[in-house]
């Protein structure tokens, strides 16, 4: 079983993004066993070439989808699960967010669906990047404190599809200007830019700040998975530098999230961006495996997931003291930019 520890970590790159008195100044780290599941496999590829023919046919009728569910800490987190192939993929994805629905037998330990039991999805109409999801009256049967979780779950589940950028809500065919219980405004639609698992302990001036989405680790028994959180940073801060700096600062002390960055990791120059690729150059402290000679899969994925969440970033190139040929914990060398995985948290539980 993995263990974690907490220790003080200095803010490695000076930022004016955190209000005094609400420090994030300690990190929680994980040890070096059991890398968390991240899939770089195309969903159309068969998952097991050694199974019997009947099993192959069953697999060919399934496909991987990211469902944003609620974990044991009350956070919205993606889980990539195999669902039956369907023509209405967006509608199907929402159906698998309903409590006591078809997802019940697939839920990983510690996870639960987010939409109220009995909710029907009448349809999802997608046009010009906007998905309009139409729900039944049962959609209203949720607790006020779950409203943002429901919005985030729906939005992030639907925006996994390339044709969807923004989500709007209907109930029984009627457009909704606000959410039905707590009145969250949704008339203009909801997108990933609205954030997910928003941190509230590092409150900054909202008018002079912007949100960046970061990925940290969470653990439930032997299961380890990635969780996105949105943190407010100074609006004048370079977006890519802010992402890396906040990753190095670690997860909030008020969460149960973890990181795998070692003490002393620093950027040794500003991130460089060109043609969809961001290059980040670190000191040797980035190498936290094999007696300080290799980068862990967790560190690699935390960087790639967080940076590719930013607009325009498709791949991440990692350097250590200017050298892009980096040994990975698997024994392979990383020498090319890394794209975002097709599915996050796709391991079997």
UniProtKB/TrEMBL annotation:
<protein>
    <submittedName>
        <fullName>GerMN domain-containing protein</fullName>
    </submittedName>
</protein>
<dbReference type="InterPro" id="IPR019606">
    <property type="entry name" value="GerMN"/>
</dbReference>
<dbReference type="Pfam" id="PF10646">
    <property type="entry name" value="Germane"/>
</dbReference>
<keyword id="KW-0732">Signal</keyword>
<feature type="signal peptide">
    <location>
        <begin position="1"/>
        <end position="25"/>
    </location>
</feature>
<feature type="domain" description="GerMN">
    <location>
        <begin position="240"/>
        <end position="329"/>
    </location>
</feature>
<feature type="domain" description="GerMN">
    <location>
        <begin position="90"/>
        <end position="180"/>
    </location>
</feature>
């Amino acid at each position: 079983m993995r263990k974690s520890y907490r220790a003080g970590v200095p803010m490695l790159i000076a930022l004016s993004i955190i209000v005094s008195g609400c420090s994030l100044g300690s990190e929680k780290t994980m040890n070096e066993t059991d890398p968390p599941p991240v899939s770089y496999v195309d969903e159309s590829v068969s998952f097991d070439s050694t199974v019997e023919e009947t099993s192959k046919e069953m697999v060919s009728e399934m496909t991987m989808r990211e469902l944003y569910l609620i974990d044991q800490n009350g956070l919205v987190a993606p889980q990539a699960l195999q669902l039956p192939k369907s023509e209405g993929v967006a509608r199907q994805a929402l159906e698998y967010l309903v409590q006591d629905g078809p997802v019940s037998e697939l839920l990983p330990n510690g996870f639960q669906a987010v939409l109220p039991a009995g909710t029907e999805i009448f349809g999802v109409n997608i046009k010009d990047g906007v998905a309009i999801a139409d729900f039944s009256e049962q959609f209203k049967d949720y607790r006020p404190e779950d409203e943002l979780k429901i919005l985030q779950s729906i939005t992030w589940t639907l925006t996994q599809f390339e044709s969807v950028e923004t989500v709007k809500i209907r109930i029984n065919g009627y457009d909704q200007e606000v959410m039905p219980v707590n009145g969250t405004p949704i008339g203009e639609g909801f997108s990933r830019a609205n954030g997910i698992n928003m941190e509230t302990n590092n409150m900054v001036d909202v008018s002079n700040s912007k949100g960046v989405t970061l990925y940290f680790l969470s653990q439930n028994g032997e299961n380890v998975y990635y969780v996105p959180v949105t943190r407010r940073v100074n609006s004048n801060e370079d977006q890519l530098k802010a992402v890396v700096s906040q990753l190095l600062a670690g997860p909030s002390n008020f969460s149960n999230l973890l990181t795998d960055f070692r003490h002393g990791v620093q950027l040794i120059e500003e991130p460089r961006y060109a043609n969809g690729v961001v290059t980040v150059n670190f000191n040797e402290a980035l190498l936290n495996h094999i007696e300080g000679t290799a980068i862990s899969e967790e560190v690699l994925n935390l960087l790639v997931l967080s940076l590719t969440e930013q607009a325009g970033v498709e791949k991440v190139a990692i350097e250590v003291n200017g050298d892009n040929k980096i040994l990975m914990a698997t024994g392979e060398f990383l020498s090319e930019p890394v794209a975002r995985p097709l599915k996050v948290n796709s391991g079997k539980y």
